[in-house]
Specification:
Layout: E1 8-13, E2 21-28, E3 36-44, E4 51-56, E5 62-65, E6 70-73, E7 80-90, E8 101-110
Antiparallel strand pairs: 1-4, 2-3, 2-7, 5-6, 7-8
């Protein structure tokens, strides 16, 4: 739980050994923050079990402006509940590049 200007951090142990790609967190929130937000951390070079942290920062908030068909920054977290997934997107030639898969779920509340 936090406020409109809190930096949330999603931390987890990497289930992958030496992944070639990047981790991201995709969230849906309330009100004007209802659109999907992506926060990426990568590319990374880590071993299985290494602690990975993705900063969920108000300055990185981007939403889709459907009226003007562009991505716009949001000035802070909207009050309410956020929920989403932490995903990994492989980028290496031996992987299925560009096909992300879900590693887990995250949720938090802004008051």
């Amino acid at each position: 739980m936090g406020g409109p200007h809190t930096v949330f951090v999603a931390t987890f142990a990497s289930p992958l050994a030496d992944p070639d790609g990047f981790f991201s967190a995709t969230l849906r929130g309330p009100g004007r923050c209802r659109e999907v937000f992506d926060f990426t951390d990568g590319p990374v070079e880590i071993s299985k079990g290494t602690r990975v942290a993705i900063r969920l920062d108000e300055h990185s908030l981007i939403t889709n402006d459907r009226i003007h068909s562009k991505r716009v920054h949001v000035p802070g977290w909207c009050v309410g509940r956020y929920a989403g997934t932490v995903d990994f997107t492989p980028t290496g030639p031996e992987d299925k590049a560009g096909e992300p898969f879900t590693l887990g779920h995250i949720a938090f509340r802004v008051v």
